[in-house]
Amino acid sequence: MSDTKAGARTTPVLGGNQKLVVAIAVLASFVSFLDGTIVNVALPKMIGELGGGLTAQQWIVDSYLVTLGAFILVAGSVSDLYGRILVMRIGLILFGVASVAVGAAPTVEFLIGARAVQGIAGALLVPSSLALITSNIRGAAQGRAIGIWTGMTSVAMIVGPVIGGLFVDLLNVGTVSGWRFAFFINVIPIAVVLWLLVRLGQRDVRKPGVRIDYLGSILCTVGLAGVVFALIEQQSLGWGNPAIWGSMTIGVLSFAGFLVREKYAKDPVMPLGLFRARNFWTGNVATAFIYGALALSSFAIGVYLQEGPKLPATLAGVASLPSTIIMILFSSRVGSWSGRFGPRLFMTIGPITCGIGVVTMLLVQHDFNYWWQMLPGIILFGVGLTLTVSPLTSAILGAIEPERSGIASAVNNAVSRVAGLIMTALLGLITGER
Question: What InterPro entries does the database record attribute to this sequence (predicted)?
Fold first, then answer.
């Protein structure tokens, strides 16, 4: 075999139109993932200007994750019904409007509401963008494309604090705080994606006979909101308060009703039959733990570095930059390796490496030293994520037939967002702070 053929086998080449599809999918998802983490370093300044304590900080994060996690399921069906490109366009425009509303928020309550709308828009973006890849790219090239997508969207989750920190510290114009510009800037990548969609010139393919399970969507939303409200507000009200145990009860019963509904609904939001595929259900269990850990560590590190060692927001964001560099350099290559050798080895080594990295960060002491106490753990965490994310996504979507890729990606992304949502809500319970 010639070297050229060997190289083609190890590194699948994407065609011109396929590159455009990947670029659209990456950018459309990027803004959603980016905003989910930019907020982590902006929280102290937001609360300083608008008021509120740890509870308000948790709601600023979780109002976004509640709607994102709940509506991302129905978004998979919506994209199949109305077309992925149309849904992506609507999601982009709505996300842009909501981002401007967040940046212009006059009160913390208004900001929390605008963040919830952002979550709905983000739910429309993520499954439709990944489904655009799986429906346009096949074979070994699909593994590489998914590797690029997962790598870049994961980078967005890590680089968000860096971008947010720069805006918070450096872009204060008159009486307008820099954190507000961190949300206004979303308009630029959104406009670029809308232009690229025009260049793609692809017509939507709609799946006939699809219906949206509105009852399932309502039950899922109420279930998540009830549980999260109880976990966050119990810090100030206590578990004995009727509002707390009542919302927890309603949330648990609603989510149980959602699962029953999904078993018997003709067109379920989350088809339980997907979980009969071993790689799908085991991959989603792994996703819950991995993304729960990522969300919790990102939130905790961003807030701690500003309120503990009193680092400026920019340095708090830059602290996670080594992980970002590792993912940018190696995610697509790991995706190609996973296509050749299978995902199992990577999905074993990756989470173990992430765990070692998190444990290493426990070395942090009152006499703070980033280089010895945090950097080794951040590097290990980045290596672990790089080894895990692309193979994990490929294994999950590869277990489901392509025509159901939209709902499969929606379920997987919902699992990851809900895991982050629950872990963030639990933070106050873990630390005992208010």
Answer: MFS (IPR011701), MFS_dom (IPR020846), MFS_trans_sf (IPR036259)
Q: Name the 3-class secondary structure at 12.
A: coil
Task: Report the run of H or E that residue 206 belongs to, with start and end.
Answer: none
**173, β-bridge pairs:** 176
**Beta-carbon contacts of residue 190 (< 8 Å; ≥ 6 apart):** 31, 92, 93, 95, 96
Give the closest residue to 158 by CA, choosing from 334, 295, 287, 359.
295
Average pLDDT over residues 214-238: 80
Closest CA to 118 of 134, 139, 97: 97
Q: What is the DSSP letter of 173?
A: B
Which stretch, 16-25, 96-105, 323-332, 337-346, has highest mean pLDDT? 96-105
Tell me which DSSP letter residue 239 carries: T
- How much of the chain is helix, strand and coil, in % rounded to 5? 85, 0, 15
Mean pLDDT, to the nearest integer, of 397-414? 70
Kindly state the tokens that stand for 35. Answer: 């905003």
The one-letter amino acid at 22:
V
Name the residue type at position 366. H
Q: Which amino acid makes up residue 28? A: A
426: exposed, middle or buried (Cβ count in 10 Å: 0-12, 13-18, 19+): middle
Mean predicted confidence (pLDDT) in 65-75: 76
Domain range list for the chain? 16-212+267-431, 213-266
Say which residue, 262 or 209, is predicted with more confidence.
262
Shortest CA distance to 311 belongs to which of 369, 377, 227? 369
| Residue 108 and residue 50 in contact, taking contact as beta carbons nearer than 8 Å | yes
What pLDDT band is residue 256 in, cutting at 50, 70 and 90? Answer: very high
pLDDT averaged over every residue in the chain: 78
Residues 219-226: what's their mean pLDDT?
83
**Could you give the dihedral angle defined by the CA atoms of residues 71, 74, 80 and 82, in that order, rounded to the nearest 10 degrees?**
-70
Q: How far apart are CA 167 and CA 76, in angstroms?
A: 33
pLDDT band for 4, please (50, 70, 90 cuts).
Answer: very low
The pLDDT tens digits of the residues spanning 33-46 come to 777 677 777 888 88
For the segment(s) 16-212+267-431, the CATH number from 1.20.1250.20, 3.20.20.140, 3.90.800.10, 3.40.1110.10 is: 1.20.1250.20
Question: CB of 400 within 8 A of CB of 280?
Answer: yes
* pLDDT, tens only, 365-397: 777 777 888 888 888 988 888 888 778 877 787
Exposed/middle/buried for residue 240 (C-beta within 10 Å: 0-12, 13-18, 19+): exposed
Alpha-carbon distance 434 to 427, whole Å?
Answer: 10
In one-letter notation, the amino acid at residue 172 is N
